[in-house]
Amino acid sequence: MNLVLFASSIIVVILIATNTRRQKKISKKQEESFWARERRANSVRRKPLDGLKYISIPLETFPTHILQQDSVIAECIETLEYLTSQKIVNLTGYSNTDLKLEYGTANITQLSEYDQNYTILVRTLQKWADVLLETGYVEEACILMEFAIDTGTDVSRTYYQLAECYSSQGANDKIQHLKDVAETIHSSSRDIILRHLNKEYP
After folding, report:
1. Which of 88, 122, 160, 168 could link 117 by a cystine bridge, Cβ 3.0 to 4.6 Å?
2. pLDDT tens across 13-33, in order?
3. Model confidence over 129-163: pLDDT tens digits?
C-alpha cells in the first residue's frame, strides 16, 4: 500500500513539473509575441484619423429641462457641454499596441484622449440616467441610455436597466437590439452582458 501511495505521489510530482514547464513555455512565447508586436507597432508611421467614427453629442435632444436644480444632473450637463467641443471616439477594448499598429505611434496621445472622452461620456450618461430613474423619469432616462447604446457602450448597467424598461413595456424586439449591440463590444464586458441578457430575457 505504501508503495502504491509512493508511486502515486511520484506521478503527481512529475505531472505538476511537466505542466509547470509547459506553462512557462507558453508564457515565454506569449511575452515574445507581445514584444515583437510592440516593436512592430512602434515603427508604424502616422496615419490619417479621418476614418474614425467620431461621436457627436445631441445635447439638445436630452432632458436638460428636468431636475435642473439637482446637483448631480447639473454636473452631468456641465460635463456633456464640455465634451461637445471635444473629439470623442469609442476605442474600448483596443490596446495601445492595437492603435499604434492601425494609426501610427505619433497618434497614440490623441487617440488616448478621444477614448478617455468616450469613457467620461458613457459614464456621465449613466450617472444622469440613474438619477432620472430614481425620481420616476423613466422615459427621459431611456433617451440617455439609448444614445449610449447607439455608441456601443460596454457599461453593463446601461444594458440591464434598458432591458428592464423594455421588458415592462413588452418591447422584446428592443431587448434583442440590446443583445445585437452587445455582440459587437470589444471589451471583456461583452460575455458578461450577453450572459445576463440571455438568462433574464431568453
Report:
1. 88
2. 666 767 666 776 665 555 555
3. 999 999 999 999 999 999 999 999 999 999 999 99
Number of residues in the chain: 202
Can you say whether the dihedral through the CA atoms of 83, 84, 86, 91 is positive or negative?
positive
Look up residue 179 and give its three cell numbers. Answer: 443583445
CA distance 66 to 137: 9
Return the closest-CA partner of residue 80 out of 45, 126, 20, 38: 126
Q: How far apart are the first and last CA of the chain?
A: 54
Sign (positive/negative) of CA torsion 57, 53, 173, 201? negative
CA-to-CA distance for 30 and 46, rounded, in angstroms? 27
| Angstrom distances, CA of residue 55 to CA of 15, 74, 123, 138, 169 | 53, 22, 15, 24, 29
Reported as type and span, the H/E element at residue 183 is helix 172-183
User: CB-based burial of residue 76 (10 Å sphere; 0-12 exposed, 13-18 middle, 19+ buried)?
Assistant: buried
- The structure's pTM equals 0.80
Cα 54 versus chain centre, distance = 16
The span from the CA of 100 to the CA of 141, in Å, is 37
